[in-house]
Amino acid sequence: MATYIEPIRGKKGITYKVRYRLNRKNKCKSFKNIEQAKRYEKQLSSLTNNIERATIPTIGETIIKLLADSKTKDAIKGAASNLRMLLKYDIARIPTDALRGSDLVEHCEIRKQDLSRPSPATLYHDITNIISSMKLANTLFNLNVDINSLTEGKATLYKLKWISGSTARNRRPSSNELDQIFELAKVKQEKPKNKLPILDVIMLALETAMRRSEVVKVTWDDYSAEKQSLTIRDRKDPKNPIDQDIWLSHEAIAIIERQPRSNINEPIFPFSAGTITSNWCALCKQLAISNLHFHDLRAEAACRYYQQGWNIVQIAKQTGHKNLNTLNDFYLRLGLTERQLLKAA
């Protein structure tokens, strides 16, 4: 609110008018001396600041708004779970216009104390998702987040080595580990109280290289036994998600065929990705198998394709990778000799 004091000369001397604009209307109030006018102007300024502060959303409120906005649903889909997790941290309570690079550093300090002891790569995702979501919010919601300060904060975190890009995993389950997992998963799947066919889900992931989110998304309408194919709608892609058909082995078809049939628009596996993760983690914990993620099955499938004689282009079509370097560096967890042969092919 812009205010200014205007001296007015009259028959009885000088009076002072404090002029301001409120609710799109010009207003003023007169005072006999300058001290009273300045005091009133200060009160107006304080009131304005309080009103503006009350209307400025916090980081958490902005994240919630982004998650609920249909325009941004696809843009932040990959970061949604991480953004929801950030809502429980102190950084979510900071007003958007007050967020600075130092707050990112403080957030990482807090996160490093978590029981999970997040890696620099995990903290990198926190920081990247905060900055990218605030860039969106600046434009869509007309906010005033200082992106330059956040970028400087990110650079500082790199120098401190508190954040870093993802490092390539080389974890592959051993034959013995898979045998144990299959055996226990079979026992759990056969229990009437367990609705999720966890063994079938694991086997399908190994046969198709599908992500857990894709396993629970495909519908009966997407499946064709005759064509030996499955259509994955809006398959994950950094720039342009598209529908993609993948090949199904006879074993994959058998797994799908033994699932209870429902409406063609219903999922073949009507569960959440989180349910798969929790069941997988429970299996690994019970078997004392460490550092094996469900996503590692996707890499295992890619390795098996290569060892069966598929070329890298065929594998990429099945896994959905447009960047062959990403496929080679992160998913084909092969020995050095095999990697060299692959690059030379």
Automatic annotation (TrEMBL):
The keyword Cell membrane does not apply. PANTHER family: INTEGRASE_RECOMBINASE HI_1414-RELATED (PTHR30349:SF94), PHAGE INTEGRASE-RELATED (PTHR30349). PROSITE patterns: TYR_RECOMBINASE. Residues 171-345 form the Tyr recombinase domain. GO terms for biological process: DNA integration; DNA recombination. This is Site-specific integrase. Keywords: DNA integration, DNA recombination. Coiled coil: none annotated. InterPro entries: DNA_brk_join_enz (IPR011010), Integrase-like_cat_sf (IPR013762), Integrase_catalytic (IPR002104), Tyrosine_recombinase_XerCD (IPR050090). It holds the Pfam family Phage_integrase. It comes from the Bacteria.
